[in-house]
Write a structure and sequence with these properties.
globular; 52% strand; mainly beta; signal; Porin; 355 residues
Length: 355
Protein backbone atom coordinates (compact mmCIF):
# COMPACT_ATOMS: atom_id res chain seq x y z
CA UNK A 1 0.00 0.00 0.00
CA UNK A 2 1.22 3.52 -0.78
CA UNK A 3 1.53 5.90 2.17
CA UNK A 4 1.74 9.70 1.89
CA UNK A 5 3.65 11.61 4.59
CA UNK A 6 1.78 14.49 6.25
CA UNK A 7 3.47 17.72 7.27
CA UNK A 8 5.71 15.98 9.79
CA UNK A 9 7.45 19.13 10.92
CA UNK A 10 4.13 20.74 11.79
CA UNK A 11 2.99 17.71 13.76
CA UNK A 12 6.29 17.60 15.64
CA UNK A 13 6.04 21.31 16.39
CA UNK A 14 2.55 20.85 17.79
CA UNK A 15 3.78 17.98 19.96
CA UNK A 16 6.57 20.22 21.26
CA UNK A 17 4.10 22.98 22.04
CA UNK A 18 2.11 20.74 24.34
CA UNK A 19 5.05 18.72 25.64
CA UNK A 20 8.57 19.41 26.86
CA UNK A 21 11.32 21.01 24.82
CA UNK A 22 13.90 18.45 25.96
CA UNK A 23 11.80 15.52 24.81
CA UNK A 24 11.20 17.13 21.42
CA UNK A 25 14.86 17.82 20.90
CA UNK A 26 15.66 14.14 21.32
CA UNK A 27 12.82 12.49 19.41
CA UNK A 28 11.68 12.23 15.79
CA UNK A 29 7.96 12.07 15.09
CA UNK A 30 6.07 11.16 11.92
CA UNK A 31 2.38 10.83 11.09
CA UNK A 32 1.14 9.35 7.81
CA UNK A 33 -2.28 9.58 6.18
CA UNK A 34 -3.16 6.63 3.94
CA UNK A 35 -6.10 4.78 2.47
CA UNK A 36 -7.77 3.08 -0.47
CA UNK A 37 -11.15 2.98 -2.19
CA UNK A 38 -12.40 -0.28 -3.75
CA UNK A 39 -15.76 -0.43 -5.56
CA UNK A 40 -17.18 -2.77 -8.19
CA UNK A 41 -20.33 -3.84 -10.03
CA UNK A 42 -21.45 -7.28 -8.88
CA UNK A 43 -23.84 -9.97 -10.10
CA UNK A 44 -25.17 -12.65 -7.73
CA UNK A 45 -27.74 -15.32 -8.52
CA UNK A 46 -29.97 -17.12 -5.99
CA UNK A 47 -29.69 -14.03 -3.80
CA UNK A 48 -33.25 -14.01 -2.43
CA UNK A 49 -34.27 -15.38 0.95
CA UNK A 50 -35.93 -18.40 -0.67
CA UNK A 51 -33.03 -19.07 -3.04
CA UNK A 52 -34.56 -17.36 -6.06
CA UNK A 53 -33.83 -14.06 -7.75
CA UNK A 54 -30.64 -12.45 -8.98
CA UNK A 55 -29.18 -9.06 -8.15
CA UNK A 56 -26.94 -6.50 -9.84
CA UNK A 57 -25.43 -4.06 -7.38
CA UNK A 58 -22.55 -1.78 -6.49
CA UNK A 59 -20.28 -3.67 -4.13
CA UNK A 60 -17.50 -2.24 -1.93
CA UNK A 61 -14.30 -3.90 -0.77
CA UNK A 62 -14.12 -6.73 -3.29
CA UNK A 63 -10.31 -7.03 -3.29
CA UNK A 64 -9.47 -5.10 -0.14
CA UNK A 65 -11.78 -3.23 2.18
CA UNK A 66 -12.05 0.52 1.58
CA UNK A 67 -10.35 2.48 4.37
CA UNK A 68 -8.52 5.57 5.49
CA UNK A 69 -6.14 5.81 8.38
CA UNK A 70 -3.46 7.54 10.38
CA UNK A 71 -0.22 5.83 11.30
CA UNK A 72 2.33 7.43 13.60
CA UNK A 73 5.72 6.74 15.10
CA UNK A 74 7.94 8.53 17.60
CA UNK A 75 11.56 7.47 18.08
CA UNK A 76 12.46 7.16 21.75
CA UNK A 77 15.76 6.37 23.41
CA UNK A 78 17.69 3.12 22.93
CA UNK A 79 15.99 1.94 19.74
CA UNK A 80 12.50 2.09 21.30
CA UNK A 81 9.60 3.68 19.42
CA UNK A 82 6.05 4.63 20.31
CA UNK A 83 3.60 3.76 17.52
CA UNK A 84 -0.11 4.10 16.83
CA UNK A 85 -2.60 3.16 14.12
CA UNK A 86 -6.13 4.53 13.69
CA UNK A 87 -7.79 2.89 10.67
CA UNK A 88 -11.39 3.47 9.61
CA UNK A 89 -13.24 1.10 7.28
CA UNK A 90 -16.09 2.37 5.14
CA UNK A 91 -18.54 1.19 2.50
CA UNK A 92 -17.68 3.12 -0.64
CA UNK A 93 -21.06 2.41 -2.26
CA UNK A 94 -23.00 4.21 0.49
CA UNK A 95 -20.42 6.18 2.47
CA UNK A 96 -21.32 4.48 5.73
CA UNK A 97 -18.83 3.19 8.29
CA UNK A 98 -17.94 -0.49 8.23
CA UNK A 99 -17.19 -2.93 11.06
CA UNK A 100 -20.50 -2.38 12.85
CA UNK A 101 -20.44 1.41 12.50
CA UNK A 102 -17.22 1.91 14.47
CA UNK A 103 -15.24 5.07 13.72
CA UNK A 104 -11.93 3.18 13.63
CA UNK A 105 -13.30 -0.29 13.08
CA UNK A 106 -10.39 -1.80 11.20
CA UNK A 107 -7.71 -0.99 13.77
CA UNK A 108 -7.20 1.36 16.72
CA UNK A 109 -4.12 0.71 18.81
CA UNK A 110 -1.07 2.24 20.48
CA UNK A 111 2.11 0.45 21.44
CA UNK A 112 5.86 0.22 21.91
CA UNK A 113 8.19 -1.24 19.29
CA UNK A 114 11.83 -2.32 19.40
CA UNK A 115 14.13 -4.87 17.77
CA UNK A 116 12.39 -7.48 19.96
CA UNK A 117 8.97 -6.80 18.51
CA UNK A 118 5.80 -4.76 18.99
CA UNK A 119 3.49 -4.79 22.01
CA UNK A 120 0.20 -3.06 21.17
CA UNK A 121 -3.07 -2.28 22.97
CA UNK A 122 -6.50 -1.67 21.45
CA UNK A 123 -8.73 -3.00 18.66
CA UNK A 124 -6.56 -5.19 16.45
CA UNK A 125 -6.64 -7.87 13.76
CA UNK A 126 -6.44 -11.42 15.09
CA UNK A 127 -3.49 -13.76 14.61
CA UNK A 128 -5.21 -15.63 11.75
CA UNK A 129 -5.49 -12.35 9.85
CA UNK A 130 -1.83 -11.60 10.60
CA UNK A 131 -0.58 -14.81 9.05
CA UNK A 132 -2.95 -16.19 6.41
CA UNK A 133 -3.39 -13.45 3.80
CA UNK A 134 -0.50 -14.85 1.67
CA UNK A 135 -1.87 -18.40 2.18
CA UNK A 136 -5.24 -17.66 0.53
CA UNK A 137 -4.88 -18.35 -3.22
CA UNK A 138 -6.94 -15.24 -4.06
CA UNK A 139 -5.44 -13.11 -1.27
CA UNK A 140 -8.51 -12.38 0.85
CA UNK A 141 -10.75 -11.13 -1.92
CA UNK A 142 -14.40 -11.36 -0.88
CA UNK A 143 -14.84 -14.61 -2.86
CA UNK A 144 -11.97 -16.65 -1.40
CA UNK A 145 -11.10 -18.18 1.95
CA UNK A 146 -13.25 -15.66 3.82
CA UNK A 147 -16.44 -16.98 2.19
CA UNK A 148 -15.72 -20.32 3.89
CA UNK A 149 -14.60 -18.89 7.26
CA UNK A 150 -14.79 -15.15 7.99
CA UNK A 151 -12.82 -15.56 11.23
CA UNK A 152 -9.66 -15.58 9.12
CA UNK A 153 -10.10 -11.79 8.74
CA UNK A 154 -11.62 -10.84 12.06
CA UNK A 155 -10.64 -8.33 14.72
CA UNK A 156 -10.82 -8.13 18.49
CA UNK A 157 -11.66 -5.23 20.77
CA UNK A 158 -9.87 -4.85 24.12
CA UNK A 159 -6.80 -6.71 22.88
CA UNK A 160 -3.16 -6.85 23.91
CA UNK A 161 -0.91 -8.25 21.22
CA UNK A 162 2.70 -9.15 20.56
CA UNK A 163 4.29 -9.35 17.11
CA UNK A 164 7.95 -10.12 16.53
CA UNK A 165 9.88 -10.46 13.27
CA UNK A 166 13.26 -12.17 13.47
CA UNK A 167 14.63 -12.65 9.99
CA UNK A 168 12.65 -15.49 8.40
CA UNK A 169 10.69 -16.14 11.60
CA UNK A 170 7.53 -14.32 12.72
CA UNK A 171 5.87 -14.84 16.11
CA UNK A 172 2.52 -13.41 17.18
CA UNK A 173 0.16 -13.75 20.13
CA UNK A 174 -3.00 -11.98 21.28
CA UNK A 175 -5.31 -11.86 24.30
CA UNK A 176 -8.66 -10.07 24.24
CA UNK A 177 -10.76 -9.42 27.34
CA UNK A 178 -13.80 -8.99 25.08
CA UNK A 179 -13.62 -9.23 21.30
CA UNK A 180 -16.93 -7.45 20.57
CA UNK A 181 -17.65 -4.44 22.76
CA UNK A 182 -20.81 -3.57 20.79
CA UNK A 183 -22.65 -6.43 22.54
CA UNK A 184 -24.18 -5.34 25.85
CA UNK A 185 -22.44 -7.15 28.73
CA UNK A 186 -20.48 -9.11 26.13
CA UNK A 187 -16.97 -8.09 27.13
CA UNK A 188 -14.93 -7.14 30.21
CA UNK A 189 -17.73 -8.23 32.55
CA UNK A 190 -16.81 -7.85 36.26
CA UNK A 191 -16.56 -11.23 37.96
CA UNK A 192 -16.66 -13.22 34.71
CA UNK A 193 -13.51 -12.66 32.62
CA UNK A 194 -14.37 -15.55 30.29
CA UNK A 195 -17.28 -13.73 28.63
CA UNK A 196 -16.16 -12.67 25.14
CA UNK A 197 -12.59 -13.82 25.71
CA UNK A 198 -10.32 -14.52 22.72
CA UNK A 199 -6.83 -16.02 22.64
CA UNK A 200 -4.65 -16.45 19.58
CA UNK A 201 -1.09 -17.43 18.73
CA UNK A 202 0.84 -18.27 15.60
CA UNK A 203 4.11 -18.39 13.74
CA UNK A 204 5.43 -18.32 10.20
CA UNK A 205 8.81 -19.38 8.84
CA UNK A 206 10.42 -19.10 5.42
CA UNK A 207 13.10 -21.40 4.02
CA UNK A 208 14.17 -20.36 0.54
CA UNK A 209 11.11 -20.56 -1.73
CA UNK A 210 8.97 -22.31 0.92
CA UNK A 211 6.89 -20.58 3.58
CA UNK A 212 5.07 -22.32 6.45
CA UNK A 213 2.38 -21.04 8.83
CA UNK A 214 0.86 -22.48 12.01
CA UNK A 215 -1.84 -20.74 14.08
CA UNK A 216 -4.42 -21.23 16.84
CA UNK A 217 -7.48 -19.13 17.65
CA UNK A 218 -9.99 -19.57 20.49
CA UNK A 219 -13.14 -17.58 21.27
CA UNK A 220 -15.78 -17.85 24.01
CA UNK A 221 -19.43 -16.80 23.93
CA UNK A 222 -20.42 -13.19 24.60
CA UNK A 223 -22.93 -13.87 27.39
CA UNK A 224 -22.93 -15.55 30.78
CA UNK A 225 -24.97 -18.41 29.29
CA UNK A 226 -22.52 -19.02 26.43
CA UNK A 227 -19.18 -18.17 28.06
CA UNK A 228 -18.34 -21.86 28.43
CA UNK A 229 -19.06 -22.48 24.73
CA UNK A 230 -15.71 -22.36 22.97
CA UNK A 231 -14.83 -22.35 19.29
CA UNK A 232 -11.27 -23.40 18.52
CA UNK A 233 -9.46 -23.13 15.20
CA UNK A 234 -6.25 -24.94 14.39
CA UNK A 235 -4.82 -23.81 11.05
CA UNK A 236 -1.73 -24.43 8.98
CA UNK A 237 -0.57 -23.75 5.45
CA UNK A 238 2.26 -23.81 2.92
CA UNK A 239 3.38 -21.23 0.38
CA UNK A 240 5.75 -21.90 -2.53
CA UNK A 241 7.07 -19.04 -4.66
CA UNK A 242 9.16 -19.49 -7.80
CA UNK A 243 9.51 -16.39 -9.97
CA UNK A 244 6.08 -15.34 -11.29
CA UNK A 245 4.40 -18.51 -9.95
CA UNK A 246 3.01 -19.01 -6.43
CA UNK A 247 1.29 -22.10 -5.03
CA UNK A 248 -0.56 -22.30 -1.70
CA UNK A 249 -2.34 -24.97 0.33
CA UNK A 250 -3.96 -24.86 3.74
CA UNK A 251 -6.00 -26.67 6.34
CA UNK A 252 -8.17 -25.57 9.26
CA UNK A 253 -9.87 -27.72 11.89
CA UNK A 254 -12.83 -26.10 13.66
CA UNK A 255 -13.74 -27.58 17.02
CA UNK A 256 -17.10 -26.24 18.13
CA UNK A 257 -18.81 -22.90 17.62
CA UNK A 258 -20.48 -20.56 20.08
CA UNK A 259 -23.93 -21.67 18.85
CA UNK A 260 -23.03 -25.34 18.27
CA UNK A 261 -20.31 -26.52 20.68
CA UNK A 262 -20.40 -30.08 19.32
CA UNK A 263 -19.69 -29.07 15.69
CA UNK A 264 -16.52 -30.39 14.07
CA UNK A 265 -15.51 -29.20 10.60
CA UNK A 266 -12.51 -29.49 8.31
CA UNK A 267 -11.60 -26.82 5.75
CA UNK A 268 -9.10 -27.55 2.97
CA UNK A 269 -7.89 -25.30 0.20
CA UNK A 270 -5.37 -25.25 -2.62
CA UNK A 271 -4.54 -22.85 -5.42
CA UNK A 272 -2.01 -20.47 -6.86
CA UNK A 273 -1.24 -17.40 -8.91
CA UNK A 274 0.77 -16.44 -11.97
CA UNK A 275 2.05 -13.01 -12.99
CA UNK A 276 1.83 -13.06 -16.78
CA UNK A 277 3.35 -9.57 -16.86
CA UNK A 278 4.39 -7.16 -14.10
CA UNK A 279 0.95 -5.57 -14.51
CA UNK A 280 -1.31 -8.63 -14.94
CA UNK A 281 -1.86 -11.40 -12.39
CA UNK A 282 -4.33 -14.31 -12.30
CA UNK A 283 -5.17 -16.15 -9.07
CA UNK A 284 -7.35 -19.24 -8.55
CA UNK A 285 -8.35 -21.39 -5.60
CA UNK A 286 -10.53 -24.34 -4.58
CA UNK A 287 -11.97 -24.53 -1.04
CA UNK A 288 -13.84 -27.36 0.66
CA UNK A 289 -15.67 -27.41 4.01
CA UNK A 290 -16.34 -30.90 5.35
CA UNK A 291 -18.57 -31.07 8.41
CA UNK A 292 -17.99 -34.23 10.37
CA UNK A 293 -21.05 -36.48 10.77
CA UNK A 294 -23.11 -34.10 8.63
CA UNK A 295 -24.10 -33.85 4.94
CA UNK A 296 -23.96 -30.03 5.11
CA UNK A 297 -20.69 -29.63 3.23
CA UNK A 298 -19.64 -26.95 0.74
CA UNK A 299 -17.08 -26.49 -2.02
CA UNK A 300 -16.23 -23.21 -3.73
CA UNK A 301 -14.14 -22.25 -6.75
CA UNK A 302 -12.68 -18.75 -7.00
CA UNK A 303 -10.91 -16.82 -9.75
CA UNK A 304 -9.36 -13.36 -9.38
CA UNK A 305 -7.67 -11.28 -12.08
CA UNK A 306 -6.07 -7.86 -11.65
CA UNK A 307 -4.48 -5.40 -14.06
CA UNK A 308 -2.34 -2.59 -12.67
CA UNK A 309 -2.74 0.78 -14.36
CA UNK A 310 -0.24 2.52 -12.08
CA UNK A 311 1.38 2.13 -8.68
CA UNK A 312 -1.85 3.36 -7.12
CA UNK A 313 -4.69 2.17 -9.38
CA UNK A 314 -5.76 -1.25 -10.64
CA UNK A 315 -8.74 -2.93 -12.30
CA UNK A 316 -10.03 -6.35 -11.27
CA UNK A 317 -12.43 -9.13 -12.25
CA UNK A 318 -13.40 -11.81 -9.70
CA UNK A 319 -15.72 -14.81 -10.06
CA UNK A 320 -16.80 -17.66 -7.80
CA UNK A 321 -19.17 -20.62 -7.60
CA UNK A 322 -20.36 -22.08 -4.29
CA UNK A 323 -21.63 -25.68 -4.35
CA UNK A 324 -23.68 -26.35 -1.20
CA UNK A 325 -24.65 -29.85 -0.10
CA UNK A 326 -27.35 -30.83 2.35
CA UNK A 327 -28.48 -27.77 4.29
CA UNK A 328 -25.28 -25.75 3.90
CA UNK A 329 -25.98 -22.02 3.52
CA UNK A 330 -22.61 -20.53 2.48
CA UNK A 331 -22.71 -17.77 -0.12
CA UNK A 332 -19.86 -16.77 -2.42
CA UNK A 333 -19.36 -13.43 -0.63
CA UNK A 334 -17.54 -13.07 2.67
CA UNK A 335 -20.22 -13.33 5.36
CA UNK A 336 -23.01 -13.96 2.86
CA UNK A 337 -25.59 -16.74 3.08
CA UNK A 338 -28.12 -18.40 0.79
CA UNK A 339 -31.12 -20.65 1.32
CA UNK A 340 -30.18 -24.14 2.61
CA UNK A 341 -28.68 -26.36 -0.08
CA UNK A 342 -28.79 -23.65 -2.77
CA UNK A 343 -25.75 -22.99 -4.95
CA UNK A 344 -24.58 -19.51 -5.88
CA UNK A 345 -22.50 -17.81 -8.57
CA UNK A 346 -20.96 -14.38 -8.23
CA UNK A 347 -19.05 -12.10 -10.61
CA UNK A 348 -17.68 -8.65 -9.81
CA UNK A 349 -15.62 -6.16 -11.82
CA UNK A 350 -14.23 -3.00 -10.31
CA UNK A 351 -11.50 -0.50 -9.63
CA UNK A 352 -9.24 0.09 -6.64
CA UNK A 353 -7.32 3.29 -5.94
CA UNK A 354 -4.69 3.61 -3.22
CA UNK A 355 -3.67 6.92 -1.67
Amino acid sequence: MHYKRLATAGVAALACAIGTGAACAQSSTSVTLYGLVDTGIEFLNHAGTNGSGSVYRLSPGNVTGSRWGLRGKEDLAGGLSAVFVLESGFNSDTGTSGQGGRLFGRQAYVGLQSQWGLISLGRQINTLYDLFVPLDPVRYTSYGLLAQDAQFANRADNAIKYTGNFGNLTLTGMYSAGYDATIANGSEVPGNPRIGQEIGAGTSYTIGKLGMVLAYDQRRGTSAASAENIERRYATGLLWTDGPFTATAGYRFLQGTIAAPSLRAHLYWIGGSYNFTPAFVVRAGVYRTDRRDSPNDAMSYALAMAYTLSKRTDLYLNASFMDNKGASTLGVVNGGTVAPGVNQTGVVAGIRHIF
